[in-house]
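Q: How would the structure tokens look for this protein?
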Amino acid sequence: MHMPVRKTFLGLDIVGFTRPDRTDSACLAMRRVLYDALTTGLRRAGIRPAACEMLDRGDGIMSLLDASVEPGLVVDTVVPSLATALRDHNAGAARPERIQLRAVLHTGVTVQDDKGHVGRDISHAFRLLDAPELRLPLTDSGAELVLAVTDAAWDRLRPDRRRPPVSRFRRTLLSTKEAPVQAWVAIVAPDLLPAG
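A: Here is the predicted structure in token form.
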């Protein structure tokens, strides 16, 4: 019997991955940047590799973090570190290889079999990545990264984590296939962490 396991989901999706001006080589280069950036962000947050399973989505990654990982670490360290890596990459990249990223942070349960993970919560995280309300802020701002934090993840933020950069989040109604969902959304500025 497969037992439900509580996880924190960090979904990442490269905007316009299959645009006509992007060659297969450009797509491979963007994926390398994304994986390297996520690995660096997790390391900076002190999240052990064993506590994070990365599911490849072609144009993105769905990371399943152990329930012991406090979502505030993702908001305060992993996501800003991603934004910094993307800004550094984009500064020297040709236009087809510049990356904008939609990100979703959610918590819930998943059930795993020998083929992968299933469950309403992981499906919900995937669907939120496609919300049109996450596309518009990137188009309008030209920023590298927009993050949506679901109520389930927001409620798990420790009180001492409810400070900047969390204060930059705005309550937003996101459209999904099933029904509109309230989430906390922010354009994420690159962090000021030292390189390393």
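The first strand starts at residue 5 and ends at 14.

The chain has five helices and eight strands.

Upvote if useful.
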